[in-house]
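User: I'm putting together notes for a lab meeting next week and I want to include a structural view of one of the chains we've been expressing. I don't have a solved structure, so I'd like a prediction I can at least talk through. The sequence is below, exactly as it appears in our construct file.
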Amino acid sequence: MNDDYVVQQKKIIQQMKDSIHQGQSKSSIVEMQSDYENDDQTCLTSVAFTSKDIAKIILEKIIEPLKSSDPNHFYYSSELLHLTIKNLRTIHNPSLFNEEDVVKAHQLFNQIIPTFQSFNFSFEGLILFPTSVALLGYCNDTLRKLVQTLDFGLREIGVPDNKKYISDTIFFGNMTLCRFTHEPSSSFQNKVKELENIYIGEMPVTEISLITCNAVCHSKTRKVIGTYKLSQ
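Assistant: Thanks for the context. Below is the predicted structure for the 232-residue chain, given as structure tokens.
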């Protein structure tokens, strides 16, 4: 995938890595917890769930090797893996949204998402955040147009995104694979370094789901508000 937007995505990701390394990350992060599965904080977000074939490769090539180096963190199973498309409200208890917000967001997504073409993510490389590890996804600027249109619409209906981002114009795929329950060991960090430039493959995004869930999108906390198909 050789596209000017991909070049911009790679530049902004390098800036993010540099700021994390310097301890100056400007992005919102989920605080470290001991029990993510039973976390009672809730977020409102929109995601693309990971296809079975891509999830299988991720488990075999990344999650299992990381788990072998340090088994005590929280690792995502295939049914929990997802790619955030557009956050609305970050995790909190009590929730930072109400039923009216959910209804308005559902109506907005139902109007906007079908007007956009489906697009592909190319998954390549890991990023080590202060409390997690994520797989990076690159795509064309359909993502930018979609996110900015949703952003504008959410502000118009009074449900603006409350998350902090490194850029308001350059967006990329960020699929969390592991959340830390303690400071990662040196062997774990070395394994992340070893896998830092791994290529996984491409995945088409043909539909987006608006959901409420906890920090790890656990099935017992996850509620799908609506699923909206992109045009083909």
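A couple of points you could mention at the meeting. The beta strands are 42-49, 74-75, 82-92, 119-128, 132-138, 173-179, 199-205, 207-213, 223-229. The two ends are 19 Å apart (CA to CA).

User: Perfect, that's what I needed.
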